[in-house]
Amino acid sequence: MPDSPAASVQTPRSPVAANPVPAILIAVLAHLTAVAPLATDMYLSAFPEMAADLGTSATGIQLTLTAFLIGLGLGQLFIGSLSDSIGRRRPLLIGSLACLVAGVACALAPNVELLALARFAQGLSGAAGVVLARAMISDTSRGAAAAKLLGVMMIISVIAPVVAPLSGGAIVANIGWRAVFWVLAALTLIMFAGAAVFTKESLPVSARTRGGVRATITGARAILSNRNYVGYLLTFCFAFAALFAYISASPFVIQNVMGLSAGVYSIVFGLNALVIVITSSVAAALAGRVSYRAMILAGLAAAALATAGLLVAVFNGVPTLPTLVLFALFQGSLGFIFSNATTLALEEAEAYAGTGSAFLGFLQFTLAALVSPLVGLGGESTAIPMGLAMIISIVLAVLAFAILTRKSSRPGAHVESGAEQGADQGRAAVI
């Protein structure tokens, strides 16, 4: 694949005045990032109740989750690319409003067919928050500044799936499953209000692509012909696939195979999430002082070690303590991969940041949807499919990083100077 940077066919970004990103705006972007993970997991504990209430099977209810994930992936692909030509704010506001309507439709759905349709619409429109939060950071920040902000978004995206089942379970137990969707609608309303009040357009007209569909295709070709972008894209997405293999299989592995209780599983899951929050925070603190590629390499090495150890463990009876330690090592390794790979991918996308963010989100959730059923192929009493899925995913991430990516000459791809960090702050004023 030839290394033809996307910037060579793009309109350069316009310089702006120097201002740090306001704390309230960071909070708004974090909220945009959190809504989709919350909408994914909050209603999981209600599946049996929903099946009985709507007169359908467990498979029928499971399809509502699949519909949401498909919508979330497609929505990011469409909205991210569209935003490169019309700007970020308008699609963000329209998407947030449509997501609010879809959330209300979910709460009122009289049957599983309409619920699945509403969930698809909820994912499709809710994708605006996820993909545009990343694109807006890329519009206004570079190098260390972008890595720190993306690190914050990464922490939020890890915390949200942990909080979602716990809070959703409490809501379902006390009020019922429909209340979950009313809560999600309320959170979406807050998302819309925050975006309307606190965000400004982050992509100047002079930096937008022109030419409609043809320009979108040109942008897609430009970034997909950039081997560095593709390498960081695949590194991020395959590492995420390994994480989703763990998330999908860990309830059965920890409870059915290892024989631990549901309460212990919740503690283990929460502690592992805390590990990735800590390492993501460390990676954000190191941004600008340590090479992003070095941090990714360290993360991939730790992930490879952890998944290789897990594969040995699952073929040797899944011993409790070593397996739990390896789970924690794996989770911790991702904190050095996710935000740094995202930062460098969007650096390569340049003025096509919306399209670059779209491909990240689309492939991320597509692989997650594919991996989720694969880890259950052996049934609920074996950890072997999980172990195989995790190590295969990490090996593919390592190969993508090693074969496709090269040290870039772009500012921020290595370690920034003080002047470059000042320039990063200057881009923050646009939002």
What does this protein look like?
By secondary structure, the chain is mostly helical. It has a single domain, classed as Growth Hormone, Chain: A (Up-down Bundle), CATH 1.20.1250. Helix content is 77%, strand content 0%. It has 16 helices and no strands. α4 packs antiparallel against α7, α9 (227-257) runs antiparallel to α13 and α9 packs antiparallel against α15. The longest helix has 32 residues, at 143-174. It is globular. The two termini are 35 Å apart. The model is unreliable at 1-19 and 411-431 (pLDDT under 50).
Looking at the overall shape, the CATH architecture is Up-down Bundle
Taking the alpha carbons of the first and last residues, their distance comes to 35 Å
Largest β sheet strand count, sense and barrel closure: none
Morphology call: globular
CATH topology: Growth Hormone, Chain: A
How would you state the average pLDDT, rounded?
81
Total number of beta strands: 0
Poorly predicted residue ranges: 1-19, 411-431
Helix content: over 70%
Instruction: State the secondary-structure class.
Output: mainly alpha
Number of helices: 16
| Beta-strand residue fraction | under 5%
- Taking all Cα atoms into account, the compactness measure Rg is 21 Å
Element-level helix/strand string: HHHHHHHHHHHHHHHH
- Tell me the CATH superfamily: MFS general substrate transporter like domains
CATH C-level label: Mainly Alpha
